[in-house]
């Protein structure tokens, strides 16, 4: 491949790496919340209130019992899938994360995982100019990207 194409491939992979990093907190949240969502779905499915064989048929042809079961199965399946997705995410990302230096992890965390005013926090903590904060964090991203995708 030519340098021309390599430049564009690197831009696409940088964007993908940033997306991976920005999903970090969401994936942590999924691992934390999904187990309780599964329990709640099962509780709603099998709660005593409203479960009786004599429930009248509703407009869609089902009864309340069937609707509770279908909604509960759907909620439970979504929660189970989100746990699996989050586990796969961390099984892929954590080994790469562990290979980074403390400084690279700090730069990446402040700029892309925590977000907000990450560049300003980097500037203040490391006592560097804005251009250096961008350069250092971009270099850390490049290291992360290369290890993640190759």
Description:
The mean pLDDT is 89. The protein has helices spanning 3-22, 24-46, 64-99, 102-113, 118-126, 130-149. It has 150 residues and is mostly helical. The longest helix is centred in the middle third of the chain and has 36 residues, at 64-99. It is built from six helices and no strands. It has two domains: 25-93, no CATH class; 100-150. Helix 1 (3-22) packs across helix 6 and helix 2 runs antiparallel to helix 3.
Supply the number of helical segments. Answer: 6
> Which shape, going by the Cα principal axes?
elongated
Give the strand content: under 5%
Helix and strand sequence: HHHHHH
Radius of gyration: 23 Å
Q: What level of helicity do the residues show?
A: over 70%
Structural domain tally:
2
Largest sheet: none
**What's the total count of β strands?**
0
Straight-line distance between termini: 16 Å
Decide which structural class fits the backbone. Answer: mainly alpha
Overall average pLDDT: 89
Low-pLDDT windows of residues: none
């Amino acid at each position: 491949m030519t340098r021309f194409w390599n430049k564009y491939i690197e831009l696409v992979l940088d964007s993908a790496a940033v997306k991976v990093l920005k999903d970090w907190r969401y994936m942590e949240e999924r691992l934390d919340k999904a187990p309780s969502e599964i329990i709640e779905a099962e509780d709603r499915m099998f709660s005593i209130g409203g479960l009786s064989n004599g429930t009248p048929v509703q407009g869609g042809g089902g009864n309340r019992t069937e609707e509770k079961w279908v909604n509960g199965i759907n909620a439970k399946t979504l929660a189970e899938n989100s746990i699996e997705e989050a586990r796969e995410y961390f099984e892929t990302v954590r080994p790469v994360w562990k290979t980074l230096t403390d400084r690279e992890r700090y730069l990446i965390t402040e700029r892309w995982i925590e977000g907000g005013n990450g560049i300003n926090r980097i500037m203040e903590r490391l006592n560097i100019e804005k251009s250096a904060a961008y350069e250092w964090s971009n270099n850390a991203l490049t290291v992360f990207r290369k290890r993640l995708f190759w």
